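For the sake of transparency, this paper describes our internal protein records without simplification. Such a record has a labelled line for the sequence and another for the backbone structure tokens. Nothing more is needed to write down the fold, since each code stands for a local backbone conformation. For reference, a complete record is included directly beneath this paragraph.
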Amino acid sequence: MIVRNHVIITGNLGADPRVVHESEKSGVVVRLSLANSEYRYDKESKEHQTPHVNWIPITAFAGLAKRVSRSLKKGDLVTVTGAIRASEYKDSIGKTLKSFEIIATDILRSEILPSERAGEVPSFDDFKEVTVGGV
């Protein structure tokens, strides 16, 4: 089987991992909220700005869920590998709504290496288009 639904995302935990289910038969289920921020450097004000934050719901199961619930906390920088799951549900007035979550296959605590430019956070604007082999 070819898997085409694969995502890797890095961000900070918005809250401590929350155990939402635990049983001997089905194991542990943990939910996390991941803040993935876009940063830009404003050359006029010479300040870093966060124009948008994406809040990504993450669900982990079984052994991964146990490890996450014991070792991670709010604010930790993590990298999540997994698959996107979309779903539909009806709200209290019967309107059909759509949502998504990432089903985690791995979650690693990350660290940011120091920048060569002290105090600066790189932004997408720092990267120029690169052509390889003159193409």
DSSP finds one helix and six strands in the chain.
